[in-house]
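[09:14] KT: can someone run the structure on this one? pasting the chain below
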Amino acid sequence: INLSKLYLNSPGKLTLVSFFETKNQIEKRITMIKRFRKNNYKITAAAIVCVIVASAFTLTIALSPDSAEKEKVHQMDTQDTAAIVTPKEQPQKEESKFLIDDAVKVYSDIKKVEQVAGFKFKVPAYMPVGYKADGFQLLKASKEANVLKVFYRTENNKKRSFSYEFLTSTINLSKFLPENARNQFIGEADKINVDIESNSTAFDIGALKGSKLTIKQVFKGPKPLEIVSTYFVWQDKETECAIKYNETIKNSSGTTTIWLDLPQKDVERIALSIQYPDEKLENSIYKGLSPEVSTEIAQLPIYDKEDLQKAKGMLGFNLKFPINIPGDFKATMAHVGITANSDIKNKKILYELNMVYRNGKSFIAFTQRKDGAVYDEAARNGTIVFKNGGPNSPQMIKVESLKGYEKAVFRYELRPEVIVYTWKEDGFYCEVSFIDCQDNVEDALKSIIDEKPYKLD
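[09:31] RB: done, structure tokens below
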């Protein structure tokens, strides 16, 4: 929310919201955040960029720690993994072709998921009445293993969304899920004062034998919050599967809100219906999911060259796509979304490419679009009007014209820790924001400006 005021130049323009979560998950996260006082849930500008720019859509709010942190958090015990994987039956995983190998990848096409999952998986052929498939996440559990998460959503009479989850992998989900819960809030549970408890017991649902996994997240402070998620976990030949069928949130007054309560008879029917995807199943249940880019919250994430080719077609220009930037900055996220100047009412939609780079606590946000309103205003007036939605909004911000570049480059400061540069390319405009960057700004900026358009095969 604060990022829309801090970084973007139009009120309410939060095009990066919702990269990793379904709609009701975002609603839950906002509800939880609102229950914390500022001194108990303090988020820095860098954290905001990590969570929101890096999407707020992913969906699982903290989603892209350094690769070393990912390994530390998600690495499973090799003995546990070996107990589930059947080497002779496990398909050979191709060498990674990802340009950006994000820890949480979001998809709407099951055929694409089959190509990149790295293992042969089954999905449910049954859904309870009123539910529909709502998207896929591919979670990177280790260098060798992924976890597939499928969301199914419905709405009650109050028009509030509910969703249950189906998960499958070749690793031990009973160990992975508690570890993943620890990493949900940008991997900094100690800073937001949260405890994670988990308990797994033998549990049968109808004809299925498995275990009941309960994960409790306890957020401390003057207004404590408790979130309890319950899964049914079972083994299906070479893979392990799980269904999240119950979730409750209890606030400081003791009031409990039920976010999910799927009857056990439905859990059994879902679990017994799993099968390998085929054309009939794909067309009946997993076709027509939320569009990759919509006028609400959906984005087109970019992980490989196929995604990049699709993005280029939507943007309509030869985009830049630097993976590494001087100063040890590496691209951690990239996606296409709609611009603030899109005329949604008249269906005149404009797109922009957003990329995020991270180096420790410093971030770079790189945006490319055909819309040159900010650049034109800076060139014409030597100032820009920044609408941050606050009591002093709009603000007139002075723009500095930089020397030493072949292109006209303008610099302005939104806040001491947020410096923005904008310039014009051949047929599109670029904006680069440096967030909490102290060193290497000039080298990083020059590198981006000098970057040639990405060549696609």
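[09:33] KT: thanks! The two ends are 38 Å apart (CA to CA).
[09:34] RB: yep, looked fine to me
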